[in-house]
Amino acid sequence: MNVFGVGRLTVPYRVTIVPANGGRQGPDAPAVEEISVLEVAQAVAAPPSLDLLLTLAGPDMRAVDALIREHMDSPVPVIPALADHLIAGSAKRLRPLLTIAAARLCGARDDACLKLAAAVEFIHTATLLHDDVVDSSELRRGRVAAHLIWGAPASVLVGDFLFARAFELMVGAGSMAALEILARASRVISEGEVLQLTRSHDLDLTQDVYIDIIRAKTAELFAAAAEAGAVSAGAPPERCRALRQFGQDLGLAFQLIDDALDYSSDAATLGKNPGDDFREGKVTLPLLLAMQRTAASERDFWVRTIDRREQEPADLDHAIALMRETRALDDTLALAVSYADSAKAAIADYGSNGWRPALQDLADFAVMRRA
After folding, report:
1. CATH number for the domain harbouring residue 303
2. In terms of DSSP H, where are the helices of the chain?
3. Residues 100-110: tens digit of each pLDDT
4. Total structural domains in the chain?
5. Domain span at residue 206?
6. Which of 98, 126, 164, 212 has a beta carbon 3.0–4.6 Å from 225's, enabling a disulfide?
7. Predicted structure pTM score
């Protein structure tokens, strides 16, 4: 049995369950069962706690929440109602937490990071509103997607409103450098979304191109959130670069786990319908690896279900079975762990003022979470 470490945990990479007969061979011998590392990790270990980070950031995050509520307000009633529908469903607010933690890790004593953290949450929420319209998603954060309640036009326009509010908050923070970082991130995220849209049903998508897509559409905001926090604290360039690296690797790990959970979780836990990526013909890493490894034997299946999106009720289960047989889910998790380890290494030399171990717990949480 191979193992790899996840923070303070050691999780089997692949587990073989030997039957009670001791594994004897022969036509009448019980089958040997293998289960994936993702199932083992979810079964034997709770995700690392975010208690330290949430405790340290508690007063700041309460102030950030107040800023979010204040800047969601509008004389147009549908705007705060629709925005609240999505923002209120965010329990963890990981990206604003990252901005606060990066700033405090770098010794920030003022409140400049608070407006930046609120801006980060607005940017993230705006992209979710737009994504759900593009993807025709039915659930988001365990709730009915906003576009199914208020319509696609209102969802897109409220997303635009939140982008505008984000830039007002950035200007109010008084840091041109942080404004530049988050403005660039908004542009890169849009580029990543468009790139994913144009390659979403591409059976020949490579792993390198896929990593480029999620680096832009997901990891960039994590990276910018951490870097902006460090910049707002007046940290030296090398520390800003280190925190940007932390955020980027954390974001990559986070998205890869999202990819895997879409094929291994349930709606109640995940907060959205599992298998949505498959139904939308969206090529994520587990699907990409399974397609590459079964190209000869399952080509017609992949062309029908992903390229032409002619799907039957049993197709999702068959795709998941192929992912398990080819270790596509295992290898996705292993890559996520490698990015989480890289994130922790990026800040390993920082002083232990409480914030560094809290951020390292966040990296462990990203790969061991269930939703």
Report:
1. 1.10.600.10
2. 37-44, 51-72, 78-87, 94-105, 112-135, 146-150, 152-173, 176-199, 207-214, 220-232, 237-261, 267-270, 276-279, 285-293, 295-302, 315-325, 328-346, 355-368
3. 999 999 999 99
4. 1
5. 3-368
6. 98
7. 0.85
